[in-house]
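User: Can you predict the 3D structure of Methyltransferase domain-containing protein? Sequence below.
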Amino acid sequence: MADGATTARRSAIYLLDQILGEGRLLPECLAAGALDRLSPEDRARAQRLTLETLRGLERADRLLGGHLQKTPALTVRNALRLGTVELCQGAAAHGVVNSMVEIIGRSRKHGRLKGLVNAVLRKVAAEGPDAWPRMRVPRLPDWLRGPLVEAWGAEAVAGMERAHFAGAPLDLTLKPGASAPGGEVLPTGSIRLHEAGQVSALPGFADGDWWVQDAAAALPARVLNPVPGERVLDLCAAPGGKTMQLAAAGAAVTALDISETRMARLRDNLNRTGLSAELVVGDALEHQGQYDAVLLDAPCSATGTIRRHPDLPQAKDGSEFGGLIELQAQMLARAWGLLKPGGRLVYCTCSLLPDEGEVQIEGVLDFFADMSVDRAALDLPGVDPAWITEEGGLRLRPDYWPERGGMDGFYIACLRKAR
Ligand SMILES: C[S@@+](CC[C@H](N)C(=O)[O-])C[C@H]1O[C@@H](n2cnc3c(N)ncnc32)[C@H](O)[C@@H]1O
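Assistant: Sure. Here are the predicted structure tokens for Methyltransferase domain-containing protein:
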């Protein structure tokens, strides 16, 4: 029987095949049960190996290119990539090489290539670990790099790529009055843990004292700044990070999302934290009502979350983004109709593309005569005035706070409706 490390590696190769071959995102593969048969330790290990291989893919391919005369089938290539990343990050050579030879050797389709895997990984083990730290920081694929360089410049994008390669620490949002399980208090109030381990084992998890939420993702609800008792609609709510912030501030929250399964996670999160909200499973474009404030965290490219989701730029090619941009514009218009006179709408996306942020707000301001941007709402602790954009939104990027470990890319704007 295979040991735990080999089981985790075999699963990581399967996940890499799905992401790089089928264009599926890691969360989709996990939701479809890809790792369900593994022990919790092997599951965590398989996910970690997959993420690290994706982060180091460009370097692994460069190293392997020198040892391969022709490109082998994707599964063999992914075994070599995974082995290369592990070897270059200091794993014991005999364990990695034997494991990869066993995995490929047992494959009916690729078994004859186990000699190649053995020979190539032995060469990588000899020279890879020295070469690795001298190689350039892996770049985003051209389909995403091009538009980002156009929007933010080459230097900023290089900073983003450094942040993507480094990965993300674990950020927590605390329930008011609760204490943190250690960590660093960030200028915006979130708690950052650099070595977190298993989240559910951290002090305060079971008591619902906090929830996991990137520091950037915690800002939209702070910008909305609800007053206790206000009726607030969280229009794309699941899994509920922002719903919990709004409810913890005392707002009467209606949380709406189209996805039943994601809403089940929101319900679990509310139960764990002892917070409450009215839950609606439905389409934001069809919802009726009148609210004091609306938070619209619209579905988007999620290009701001690549530090934690390095699968995204590898699995996608940008071809779906046009439909999302159109949906965001429709949702913005719909959200405006759900707002009482004098009310405020906070629009946000975890995207690095101006088309999903700055450009949406410029467009909607031209359309509604009773709409204005509330710049004062962005005047929050820890928010650098340099992050505020021309049209009055807040642009957050992974290359910000490099000494602290970065933040997710986000765009946030607060819109006021005339009385
Ligand atoms: C960025 S996520 C929301 C994250 C959430 N606000 C949080 O803080 O945890 C976007 C959400 O929009 C939902 N969604 C997509 N299309 C929708 C629609 N037409 N109506 C309502 N929700 C929708 C998705 O199911 C997804 O949960």
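The chain has a mean pLDDT of 97. The longest strand covers residues 339-349.
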